[in-house]
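User: Second chain of the day. Same drill as before.
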Amino acid sequence: MFALMAIMMLSLPSLSDDREAEVRTAIQSFYKAFDEGFTGPADYAAEDWNHISPSGGRCRGREATLKEVREVHKSFLKGTTDTIEKMDVRFASSDVAVGSVVSVMSPFTSPDGVTHGTERHIRTFVVVKRDDGWRIIQDQNTTIVEPH
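Assistant: Same format as last time:
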């Protein structure tokens, strides 16, 4: 009995490592989609995905979110990339994770005519385990204002 318990306890970290890897994969898939203009399927996101932009705009639902992000990636964010600099993942429960990502976004010119150089952003993701895998249900992007 003791040997069985010991084996089970030894396998717990690997289960945690697997969960974290799956959450990281969902988040990395989001960044790949960003770099590709969100043109492909969004299997990394749940149907109830909510997105909050750096300007405070909010989209509710995967279809509405995809419609908006695809529009901005066809216009002022066309060709813009966002590269993960560092990521950490914490688990709120066995089926809910929070990911924080610092990334570097390439230059772009916003609709108001302001040219943005290379910027760093921090984005928070809420990722949940559903029947079909880990899916993003919420993300909020904030521009990091560097001290002068």
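Strands lie at 45-52, 58-60, 82-93, 96-105, 108-109, 115-116, 119-130, 133-143.

User: Great, on to the next one.
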